[in-house]
Write a structure and sequence with these properties.
single chain, GIY-YIG endonuclease, Nucleotidyltransferase, domain 5, 20 helices, 19 strands, seven-stranded mixed β-sheet, alpha+beta, 600 residues
Length: 600
């Protein structure tokens, strides 16, 4: 039965609309300045719509609306709902991880340079981002050797009574024990800031002058220090090319269309230098969807904990004021979204477009989802797969681990473990899986298109019954499948068997087929994840128990010792001074702990 649209049923206010299919699933979330006018446009002149929109309209069976006070609020709500529900026909940002930044905490008396993935508005200065954490870490190590700022945390710095190993390795100036005058330390900080803020030329000129002065004064060791710093600066900036005459921070967004979809190329330009790049791809879209792509990308990608530049260059004009206002609120500084005007900006936009085109050609087709849908007789593509594995060690530590795959790729930030103390010593996998379903439903969407269970027909039936007993959502219950070991009971063997609800025999999947190999890989990841978490928890419990058995050490002190050392042997080997240096443990208690360890 097709959806009958009646425009009078919808308000003329700004807000968000949610389109649902026959099964009640949210398939599209949109925003509008005038909900009635926007929704009416879907049902007028359907033949003029893009193929994507025509398919979307054909699947609509219900439309819900949420009214907001302003269009800006609608844009924010739309981004939040897209992230929550991940609708099939929306532009959903799959790779929205936080990239690596350098943080220089200038408010500290002795600032340190560290790597972080989140921006905190605390007066610190941030440099980046870097899409490669390896490159960022290598750069940090290189800078740490030639610009030896402190490495320790603020709490460790305040409680330290003697220099650490970094000082012995000459990779820290030892400000914790006043080895270096404050002015000299801050001079080193200024050098690091000059380098990371794009003033490498000024820094190199200064260092060469200092090196020549030291050499002329026959201070060859000091001259060698400046020589090493010059080499480090040169090595750091040689991978960056100057693309703008002005020292400004901008991001450049370029779009490119292929026969399979649309790619977006993102360039990070910091202080006039091209620092890094990243590509994104959405299958099934065309450049006619360009405005939706840009608005959705900007709202989803630039979160409050990311570094947001003062200017974004986009390939064409759209309703940019609302997006710019949101970014300005998140960064607490004015942000402009503009099109390219100068020759330099147009050249950068073309570079971004070419990178997007290359990324689109390199993007592999996720056809495995189509194969899975056909082989497992699923209703639609399994864009979100949750795989669960119940595990225990001799009946102890009963846990269910859940790994998540979206668009056939692992989403490690969404991995979860669920513990069930009430099932301790029971060894009841079925009860654990049933309890997991209850907890999973309580946690809410996004819901899986497919839940894969590590086990046979019994485990599958337990999960199916639990959903039937507890599901109260409007939409349909997720689809299920289980994967069991074959005749030899070895994980990963070619004869692993796939079971579906209501089917007595396993599916006749060919050993070594792409769909079976993919399901085995997902199952093995779930097994690896839950076993790793279980062993880590067990080890921690044993170690804490061993520490708590010592006289005079309670749970709070055991927690402090565990966080500081991580192993009982290291605790026993610690000196009184090292124990006293732990925040929360004074000299008196450190003496008691030291004596307790001596008697063990």
């Amino acid at each position: 039965m097709n959806f009958e649209f009646v425009s009078a049923d919808y308000p003329t206010s700004p807000g968000v609309y949610l389109m649902k299919d026959t099964l009640g699933r949210i398939i599209y979330v949109g925003k509008a300045r005038d909900l009635r006018r926007r929704l009416s446009s879907y049902f007028r002149a359907v033949q003029k719509h893009t193929p994507k929109t025509r398919v979307l309209v054909s699947k609509i069976r219900a439309i819900d609306t949420m009214v907001t006070a302003t269009e800006k609020e609608a844009l924010l709500l739309e981004a939040s709902l897209i992230k929550k529900h991940r609708p099939r026909y929306n532009v959903v940002l799959r790779d929205d991880k936080q990239y690596v930044l350098f943080q220089l905490d200038k408010k500290s008396e002795y600032p340190r340079l560290r790597l972080t993935r989140k921006v905190v508005r605390d007066g610190s200065v941030y440099f980046g981002p870097y899409t490669s954490s390896y490159y960022a870490r290598e750069t940090w190590k290189l800078l740490g050797k030639v610009f030896p700022l402190r490495k320790c945390s603020d709490s460790a710095f305040k409680n330290r009574v003697r220099p650490c190993l970094y000082h012995d390795m000459k990779q820290c100036l030892g400000p914790c024990v006043n080895v270096i005058p404050h002015d000299e330390y801050m001079g080193m900080v200024r050098k690091v800031e000059m380098l990371l803020s794009g003033r490498a030329g000024d820094l190199l000129a200064f260092l060469r002058k200092e090196m020549d002065t030291a050499a002329a004064a026959l201070e060859y060791e000091r001259a060698a220090v400046f020589r090493d710093q010059i080499k480090a600066v040169t090595k750091t900036v040689e991978k960056q090319s100057v693309v703008l005459g002005e020292r400004t921070d901008i991001d450049v967004l370029g779009l490119s269309e292929s026969d399979r979809g649309v790619a977006l190329g993102l360039l990070f330009v910091r202080r006039g230098r091209l620092l890094d790049k990243k590509n994104f791809f959405w299958p099934g879209l065309s450049l006619e969807d360009g405005e939706e792509i840009l608005q959705s990308f900007i709202a989803q990608f630039y979160t409050a904990t990311k570094f947001i530049p003062t200017r974004l260059i986009v390939p064409f004009e759209f309703d940019m004021d609302g997006s710019a206002e949101i970014l300005s609120d998140r960064s607490r500084t004015p942000v402009r979204i503009v099109t390219a005007h100068t020759g330099e900006e147009k050249r950068l936009l073309e570079i971004a477009r070419k990178n997007a085109a290359i990324g689109a050609r390199e993007k592999k087709n996720d056809s495995i989802l189509d194969v899975l849908a056909a082989k497992l007789h699923l209703q639609g593509l399994p864009n979100r797969i949750e795989c669960i594995d119940a595990s225990h060690l001799g009946g102890e530590g009963m846990r269910v681990g859940m790994v998540v795959y979206e668009e056939a790729g692992a989403e490690k930030s969404q991995y979860r473990t669920y513990s069930f103390p009430e099932l301790e010593h029971s060894s009841d996998d079925y009860a654990a899986l049933y309890s997991w379903v209850v907890r999973r439903i309580e946690s809410g969407p996004p819901w899986a298109d497919l839940i894969l269970i590590d086990g046979g027909r019994g485990q599958l039936a337990s999960v199916e019954k639990a959903f039937a007993d507890n599901w109260k959502e409007e939409g349909p219950i997720p689809q299920f499948a289980s994967i069991a070991k074959g005749p030899t009971r070895k994980a990963g063997e070619l004869e692993d068997r796939i079971f579906l609800p209501g089917r007595k025999n396993h599916l006749p999947l060919k050993g070594g087929s792409p769909e079976l190999l993919f399901l085995q890989r997902v199952r093995d990841e779930a097994h690896r994840f839950v076993i790793g978490r279980q062993r880590k928890s067990r080890k921690k419990k044993v170690l804490q128990s061993e520490v708590l058995s010592l006289p005079g050490i309670g749970p709070k002190t055991a927690r402090l010792l565990w966080d500081a050392f991580g192993a009982v042997d290291r605790m026993k080997a610690a000196t009184e001074e090292e124990l006293a240096g732990i925040t929360g443990i004074g000299k008196k208690r450190a003496r008691q702990i030291y004596e307790a360890f001596k008697d063990v």
